[in-house]
């Protein structure tokens, strides 16, 4: 009993360490190819606070809402990642500190691909791809990692600068355009941001 609890707590702790990167699901297919990240990506414009609107649910992140991410520039030009979330069922808060760097900073055209890692782990995986963002309103983030040849693990988030996603047509169109092509809507979970209990992180 005790051991099970500890194991579960540990798994959750690890999931929290991994932070948002753990919001992933396994598909019985290889990673889709031909998905482009944003081009001419600007890290500077991407900094600041984002609210999670939607994500692929993972059993580890289950029940966590009010998810907020704060990106700030470190002195070495990497990005500090601070993820916070609140469990509306039992009132627990999680926070994960990480670091992000551009995956391929020397490319002529900088792509919105980042290597994000948490708690000092090496930034050796291009695991955060910004497929589209206008920097001021929304961001659509996706990634796929192969699991052998027949399976893959995909993550997906829609982020918003405000706790409610603006409904103007251009924003809706751009998000919809990506989701319709690449995202399995049945697996998408909407993050609750408007609950009175959501803390101000
Ligand atoms: C709340 O639930 C989460 C996971 O569902 C768990 O990790 C956490 O320890 C729980 N916190 C409290 C205070 O019970
Ligand atoms: C990011 O990860 C990829 C592997 O997915 C690697 O090729 C690349 O060199 C890494 N970028 C940095 C800046 O470490």
From TrEMBL:
InterPro entries: Calycin, Invtbrt_color, Lipocalin_ApoD, Lipocln_cytosolic_FA-bd_dom. Gene3D superfamilies: 2.40.128.20. Residues 1-23 form the signal peptide. It is found in: Secreted. GO terms for molecular function: lipid binding; pigment binding. It comes from the Eukaryota. One of its GO terms (biological process) is response to reactive oxygen species. Keywords: Disulfide bond, Glycoprotein, Lipid-binding, Secreted, Signal, Transport. Residues 43-169 form the Lipocalin/cytosolic fatty-acid binding domain. Pfam families: Lipocalin_2. GO terms for cellular component: cytoplasm; extracellular region. Belongs to the calycin superfamily. Lipocalin family. This is Apolipoprotein D. It comes from Anopheles minimus. The lineage of its organism: Eukaryota, Metazoa, Ecdysozoa, Arthropoda, Hexapoda.
């Amino acid at each position: 009993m005790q051991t099970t609890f500890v194991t579960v707590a540990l798994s959750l702790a690890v999931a929290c360490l991994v932070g948002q990167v753990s919001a992933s699901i396994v598909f019985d297919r290889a990673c889709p190819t031909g998905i482009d990240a944003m081009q001419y990506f600007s890290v500077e414009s991407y900094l600041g606070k984002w609210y999670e609107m939607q994500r692929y649910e993972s059993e580890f992140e289950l029940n966590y809402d009010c998810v907020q991410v704060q990106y700030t520039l470190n002195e070495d030009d990497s990005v500090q990642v601070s993820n916070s979330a609140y469990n509306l069922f039992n009132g627990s808060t999680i926070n994960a500190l990480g670091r992000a760097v551009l995956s391929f900073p020397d490319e002529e055209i900088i792509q919105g691909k980042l290597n994000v890692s948490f708690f000092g782990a090496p930034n050796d995986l291009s695991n955060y791809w910004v497929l589209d963002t206008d920097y001021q309103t929304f961001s659509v983030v996706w990634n796929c990692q192969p699991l052998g040849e027949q399976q893959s693990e995909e993550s997906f988030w829609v982020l918003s600068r405000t706790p409610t996603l603006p409904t103007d047509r251009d924003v809706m169109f751009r998000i919809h355009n990506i989701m319709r092509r690449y995202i399995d809507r049945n697996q998408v979970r909407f993050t609750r941001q408007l609950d009175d209990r959501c803390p101000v992180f």
